[in-house]
User: What shape does this take?
Amino acid sequence: MAAIDIKNIVKKYGDGFPAVNDVSIDVQDGEFMILVGPSGCGKSTLLRMIVGLEDITSGDMMIGDKRVNDTAPRDRNLAMVFQNYALYPHLSVYENIAFPLRLAGAPESEIDEKVRKASKTLDLDEHSERKPGNLSGGQRQRVAMGRAIVRDADAFLFDEPLSNPDAKLRGQMRTEISAAAEAPGHHHGLRHARPDGGHDPGATGSRC
Amino acid sequence: MRADGRQGKDRSRHWIGFIAIPVWCLLPVAWIVSLSFKSLEETAAGSPQFLPKDFTTSNYGEILKNDDFTRALINSFGIAMIATVLSVVFATPAAYAIARLEFKGKRLVLSMAPAIAMFPVVSLVGPLFDMWRTFGLFNTWPGLIIPYMTFTLPLAIWTLSAFFREIPWEMEQAAQVDGATSWQAFHKVIVPLAAPGVFTAAILTFFFARNEFVLTISLTSTTSSRTVPAQMSFFVGPDPFNPPYAQLATASVIVTIPVIIIVLLFQRKIVAGLTSGAVKG
Amino acid sequence: MSAVTAPQTDKAAEEKARAASSDRAVAENRLGQKLVAPAVILMLLVTAWPMIRALYLSLFRYRLTTPDDREFVGLGNYVTVLTDSLFWQDTLNTVIIMVVTVAIELVIGFGFAMVMHKIMIARGLMRTSILIPYGIITVVSAFARQFAFSLNNGFVNAWLPFVGDDYNWFGGHWSAMFAIMIAEIWKTTPFMALLLLAGLSQVSEDMLEAAEVDGATRTQRLFKVILPNMKAAIMVAVLFRALDAFRIFDNIFVMTRGAQETESSSFLTYRQVIEQMQLGMGSALSVLLFLTVLLLAFAIVKLFKVDPAQARGEG
Assistant: This one.
């Protein structure tokens, strides 16, 4: 658990176009933050800079008290759910969720316990042995969530979690994200939604 | 997409590869070109350095005056071309059916094509050597074209069906809705869409047919049907470890020039043809 | 009344629709088979017919120089072949060449594919360079290599620091095999690289980023994400190349003519038929080679669960 402090972050691409221009955001430990804005305004870029997939041109990215500008994504201890879920097609639902734990070298008993718990929470237990290719859109999204929540990450990032067109599913996801955020030990979520997802009761909007 | 910092080390590694690929691929070609400019005297005396001591173009004049070689060029081109055309003619309807229609045995045909293409051609040499002499096909063009079909036809089916799968066939109906007759829809929409695929399959098939060596060395006996690879192996003479280097190198360069031209013109299509056949792309 | 008739017409329409669709399916089935028939028949004719003839000839002692002495010997030729150490030596050579070249091509080819995947500039140059070895005639490439390794006219000895200028590459079994394998690898790595590149381009960039966030190192991403997702492409490439390498003939014919015990199975078969005119024995070798390739293909398909048709998405 840690606060994220974004100080005067600038991202310029090769052609000098500033995708993110001097953004400062302070997210408290346990806070639930939503970024809202029109498409192309830099929400995704900002998320990718926080998680470490994009270089930062200038400014400071602080996680806890550490400056992480030059830290590799794997050393930042953040979890992220990608917009298109980015599941591993060659692994079963169970192994997809277990993947980060295996990489961290967790003992088998701990992996099993955590994966089972997450599968249960997300209502995936009966699909554990299936491959992502055979799942519905909503089930895939839940696997991606599961992969994020099994870790004791310092923060959880969701890229357009409500972009799924299915209205019923959207409601369900909203509940699940809240549940995940309220679960003990997971007091922190940074989330990024399209404007149409912004009428979530607890949403705080910020414009680019 | 990403700035330099994150992947600096990776990048330098890719740059090494960027240099290594052309060097690895082109060095032997450069070598054979260099050798073709060395004089016969130079290679006879032994010339282990890469570049020629005395640069000469006389080898080219010599080889183009060599009737055996020019005859082999004609045989190679003619035999490979006929085998290609026949293969494409037979493969096109088959590939169309595989790409567009559901029918029993489709998977069998699709598995059979690569299986036959991978067939050990040398196994045909014995029986064909025997049969062709009885049928009068030994040392003739058809005597080579027929067995060439064993690998050119499955190759053409495999490549063409992969191309045909990518064609947006709805366009045919769209054209009819737009007021085209069936013939116009086929002629003005489907043919232009399918033509590049057919052409690429033909190039790949042609490469294969022209490359063939086992059959041409076994089933020919004179220059009347000997193709380039067989004729070149005849230039070697009695001692395979001491061949006429410059002559062979020059012949090599001459037969490689068309390859380079075709590759330069159609590289993108050839890559698509080679890979779409194996992996859904 | 309408309440009663409505379901009936519905049912009738449904049945009619089903009948129509099955009629259509039957027609489609028939058309499909009609269109593939000529190609399939031709393929079988040119392949199966000589093969059956080979099977028949292999049961005779039949030498073309003395055709009248043709004599039925049953499986005699097979016994002779299978008890001859030359046959096993040549099979071993072929297997060694196949395993070594395919393994090295896999590594080099993957390196090429990675570079071509990442480098965005000069892609035309890359593609052209890689296609030239593919397009060049094998006999030509074999000559280029033989000359490069040759004692009097080759640059290899001069360029390699750890080899004396008078080293004869074709004077020993392993050095000659090495030269042959280099020629084979050079010629066919491009094909491997392109198949692997096609597989690589199907590994989604998002998934790699997800793995990065999940904590995977570069090596872990390669072995746990990239390679498992390219499995189909790798296996198809291995299958095609292994069977192709097993047929090796051109390079050996040009570079050594089988000297220094570098003969392959294909070369032995050729020599029996064409040079020795031993048609019966040669046919037995043909049949054995065919069976070996069949067995090899079957083993690779079963062992690695490759299905070329399925890898293409036609499953």
